[in-house]
């Protein structure tokens, strides 16, 4: 650029040229993004679906098959209401064993944690009121402390077979009842977030699940 | 006529990697340097994404440098940078979803990485396409190397692994602070300290009388 001492007003550029330049740049940018979006969308959608499918199978502990159910007006139905975007209706997944009996329900849950929302999915055995497994799908908790809710296999394993509603206790200070979860030392808030998210989700969908089990799909 | 040192292609390329390294010498782009270098894989992905955005933007900015009026040049550069960041973001999401998840918002924040805008304003908008691309490659490589250096130190000390492979026995107690934000500052500070120490030794070795101390054997 010119030095301050030698500064002279630059020749005026007609506004039309400025507008044309920016409009042209915007059009090119838009076209490039559109091409990239079209090219990557199938892979991104497939990755998301695969991750969810894997999580559902994991928390239902390898069901023979599973169905997607939509929660509409506190009732579980097998197809979303007409005209509604399926992705926007709350979904839970019902797993069946090889004998076609219901093996459990995979229920997604979310709750604000120590940093941002923690998203998880858990398997729920409605007949016994126990959890099958829990998997954290998304968390931004403190690396090395809070993210143990996803990475600490001992903590994750505690949810298998736990009786709902869960109660969080300090590590190794519980009474050994089946509803206790030993919280992670140094990550009390993150641990409590997981426990509360699960309890809330069960309280919310339990009536619908009980009706579904009793009556089948309406 | 011998060319000026800065004008050779090698000099354009090397400058960003060592003598004007954007992170270690210019101390630019500190946000991603501190935030996403807690593992080698994250550092590499972040470095390569930035390299891609830098090279593509420099190429385009340099190509259109005579067409863009001075008044709207920053707006145009930011638009170009943002376009390539969006493309990089979607590509990472499609190709390496787990790393994209780990990098979180920092991929989108490449838009405001001052290294990129600085190279457009200081170099690409005044030099031919070839030299601009070389300069961007050098700066991007320098940024990636600096991030890798940080990521290696922090992952080895903070998790006891390198690229996820455990290095030590089961009895190794990870030095968790290195995976946390303070570890970023500690690592960066130590690296910068070490580099200034090397620089000082070189200066002394080159001009022993300047510092008023006897020259040392090692250069």
Radius of gyration of chain A: 25 Å
SSE pattern of chain A, N- to C-terminal: HEEEEEEHHEEH
The end-to-end distance of chain B, rounded to whole angstroms, is 31 Å
Q: State which percent range the strand residues of chain A make up.
A: 15-25%
Q: Helicity level of chain B, as a percent range?
A: 55-70%
Shape of chain A: extended
Distance between the termini of chain A: 73 Å
Most extensive interface: A-B, 27 and 28 residues
Number of helices of chain A: 4
**Helices and strands of chain B, in N-to-C order?**
HHHHHHHEEH
Number of helices of chain B: 8
Describe this structure in words.
The complex is a heterodimer of chains A (218) and B (219). By secondary structure, chain A is an alpha+beta fold. Chain A has helices at residues 15-59, 148-151, 153-158, 188-215; strands spanning 65-72, 75-77, 91-96, 102-112, 117-125, 130-138, 167-169, 180-182. In chain A, the strands form 2 sheets. Chain A has a 6-stranded antiparallel sheet with strand order 2-1-3-4-5-6, sandwiched between helices. Chain A has a two-stranded parallel ribbon with strand order 7-8. In chain B, strand 1 and strand 2 form a beta hairpin. In chain B, helix 1 runs parallel beside helix 7 (129-159), helix 4 (73-95) packs across helix 5 (97-103) and helix 7 (129-159) packs across helix 8. The relative contact order of chain B is 0.16. The chains are: A alpha+beta (218), B mainly alpha (219). The A-B interface holds A 10, 13, 17-18, 21-22, 25-26, 28-29, 32-33, 36-37, 39-40, 43-44, 47-48, 51, 138, 140, 142-145 and B 38, 67-72, 75-76, 79-80, 82-83, 86-87, 90-91, 93-95, 97, 101, 104, 158, 174, 176, 179-180.
What descriptors fit this protein?
heterodimer, A: 218 residues, alpha+beta, 6-stranded antiparallel sheet, 4 helices, B: 219 residues, mainly alpha, 2 strands, 63% helix
């Amino acid at each position: 650029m010119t030095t301050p001492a030698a500064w002279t007003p630059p020749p005026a550029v007609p506004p039309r040229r400025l507008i044309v330049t920016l409009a042209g740049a915007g059009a090119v940018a838009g076209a490039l993004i559109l091409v990239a979006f079209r090219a990557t969308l199938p892979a991104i959608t497939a990755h998301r679906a695969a991750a969810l499918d894997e999580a559902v199978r994991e928390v239902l502990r390898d069901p023979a098959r599973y169905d997607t159910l939509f929660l509409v007006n506190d009732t579980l139905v097998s197809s979303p209401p007409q005209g509604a975007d399926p992705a926007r209706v709350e979904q839970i997944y019902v797993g069946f064993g090889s004998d076609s009996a219901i093996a459990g329900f995979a229920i997604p849950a979310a709750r604000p944690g120590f940093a941002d929302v923690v998203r998880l999915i858990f398997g729920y055995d409605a007949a016994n009121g126990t959890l099958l497994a829990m998997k954290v799908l998304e968390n931004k908790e403190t690396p090395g402390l809070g993210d143990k809710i996803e990475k600490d296999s001992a903590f994750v394993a505690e949810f298998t077979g736990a009786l709902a509603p869960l109660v969080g206790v300090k590590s190794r200070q519980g009474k050994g009842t089946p509803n206790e979860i030993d919280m992670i030392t140094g990550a009390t808030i993150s641990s409590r977030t997981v426990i509360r998210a699960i309890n809330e989700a069960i309280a919310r969908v339990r009536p619908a699940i009980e009706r579904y089990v009793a009556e089948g799909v309406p | 006529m011998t060319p000026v040192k800065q004008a050779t292609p090698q000099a354009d390329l090397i400058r960003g990697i060592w003598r004007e390294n954007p992170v270690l010498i210019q101390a630019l782009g500190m946000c991603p340097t501190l935030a996403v270098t807690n593992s080698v894989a994250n550092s590499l992905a972040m470095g390569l994404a930035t390299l891609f955005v830098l090279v593509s933007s420099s190429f385009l900015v340099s190509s259109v440098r005579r067409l863009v009026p001075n008044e709207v040049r920053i707006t145009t550069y930011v638009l170009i940078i943002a376009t390539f960041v969006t493309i990089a973001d979607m590509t990472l999401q499609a190709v390496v979803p787990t790393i994209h998840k780990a990098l979180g918002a920092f991929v989108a924040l490449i838009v405001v990485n001052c290294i990129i805008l600085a190279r457009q304003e200081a170099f690409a908008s005044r030099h031919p396409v070839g030299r601009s691309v070389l300069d961007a490659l050098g700066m991007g490589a320098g940024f990636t190397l600096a991030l890798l250096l940080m990521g290696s130190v922090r992952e080895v000390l903070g998790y006891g692994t390198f690229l996820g492979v455990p290095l030590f026995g089961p009895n190794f107690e990870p030095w968790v602070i290195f995976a946390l934000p303070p570890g970023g500052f500690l690592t960066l500070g130590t690296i910068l300290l070490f580099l200034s120490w090397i620089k000082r030794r070189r200066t002394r070795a080159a001009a022993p009388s300047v510092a008023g101390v006897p020259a040392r054997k090692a250069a």
